[in-house]
Amino acid sequence: MLLLRIVLVLHLSLLTAYTAIVIGNHGLTLFPVFLGDMMAMAWPGQFNFDFIGFLILSALWTAWRNNFSPLGLLLGVVAFFGGMMFLSIYVLILSLGARDIQDILLGSAARPG
Q1: SS3 (DSSP) at 57
Q2: Could you give the number of structural domains in the chain?
Q3: Does the global pTM surpass 0.85?
Q4: Contact predicate 94/104, CB 8 Å
Q5: 101: which DSSP letter?
């Protein structure tokens, strides 16, 4: 569990620094660039389309793990738009109260009864 936490904190730190540099150099123009790359039907767009699949999976897992409750649905939306910036924090917080990886992945579904 310690290794997972180290990886999450390291990735979150590097991603935050990288994001800050990109915002400083290019502003908050993510969506036009992201969607423009997809509309161009080239490799950057293919990567973005593939990445959307991971965002959808992350959002669905987050909502499912929270039993599709109102909070779970809200967290799912945040997971979709927040990407790894959200997911690294979310999984890190979950890991602090978890006995094992099964608790993190399954939540209440992992508990009998």
Answers
A1: helix
A2: 1
A3: yes
A4: yes
A5: H
